[in-house]
Amino acid sequence: MMSRSATRVARSVLTHVGPRYFSTAVSRGGAASDVAALGGYVHGGAANFVHGPAKGPEKVVVTWMRVPVLGSRNASTLALGERQQEEEKKKVQAGSDGGAAAGGGGNGNKSIVSYWGVEPAKVTKEDGSEWRWNCFRPWEAYKADLSIDLSKHHAPVTFLDKVAYWTVKALRFPTDLFFQRRYGWRAMMLETVAAVPGMVGGMLLHCKSLRRFEHSGGWIKALLEEAENERMHLMTFMEVSQPRWYERALVFAVQGVFFNAYFLTYLISPKLAHRIVGYLEEEAIHSYTEFLKELDKGTIENVPAPAIAVDYWRLPKNSTLRDVVMVVRADEAHHRDVNHFASDIHYQGHELKEAPAPIGYH
Predict the structure, then answer these.
(1) Three-state DSSP class for 325?
(2) What residues pair up with 51 in beta bridges, in sequence order?
(3) Where is the segment annotated Disordered (predicted)?
(4) Which sequence spans correspond to the domains of the chain?
(5) Across residues 3-10, what is the average pLDDT?
(6) Which architecture characterizes domain 159-354 according to CATH?
(7) Distance between CA 162 and CA 155 in Å, rounded?
(8) CA-wise closest residue to 191 among 329, 9, 77, 66
(9) pLDDT, tens digit, for every residue of 14-53?
């Protein structure tokens, strides 16, 4: 039998320490039977205390447990985590049941579940059918102007013009040697380089606009449009032929060298940089003309046009590879005009912002 002072001390200790290491239970009946019952219920009971005056058959029995009550908290936490996982699974299933989102190249992917609230808009074509491309939208598609003059040529007169002209001619020699008459591979590989100048020029004009707190006259957008258009050429020809491992390695090397070389050239002389691109586009027109000749001869199979090309250039559904090459060649002719025009602006002592940019010139 414990004294009252000892009982108070025990109660105080149990009050502060009990929630972590002890569990209490109230039983009705004899003390011995209570202890035995609790000993069976609580595994590993180390010691039992009966405190407080016995009032009739009711006694309070305290059992010291080896297993802390924290285990029950952990069990509650685990149960909560399982419920959260179940809820996440339900959300993912709901997103998957909602349909597959169209990938950048038209491949179906599962919907992405996010709590950020950034939901992709549902885009449809003019006929109401679902739009399958994420890399461009219906309002960015257009019909190429095939009536453009393909024979126009800027005769090199000044020293910088001649430097630009012969630089491009020098670059053509190894290209002809490597690809020879494989115009499908040639087109795909050259587009990996052709998309660089517009991006570099647009980036540098963007930084210049920020530094000087001035508008660019729309030239940033015009040059970035050119870069995006050239990239779409690449995405189209990727559907026709796949590059080999050594051609992919060549892209890494050539793109790395060309990007840095063109970046420095544009910093030093924008008029020279644009003139180089103008002559590169003239060579591209020549390459696609030869591509068409091989298609007409039957040397290259005139396969159906890729679906991405049909939607991007708004071509008829029965279009072929020849139709694709025609519109791509027209695009290159427009890029030729834009870059020669930009170089002429600089030659006349003006800045690009002083002349309205040919945005949307296709």
Answers:
(1) helix
(2) 60
(3) 78-105
(4) 4-64, 73-140, 159-354
(5) 58
(6) Up-down Bundle (1.20)
(7) 9
(8) 329
(9) 555 454 444 444 444 444 444 444 444 444 444 444 444 4
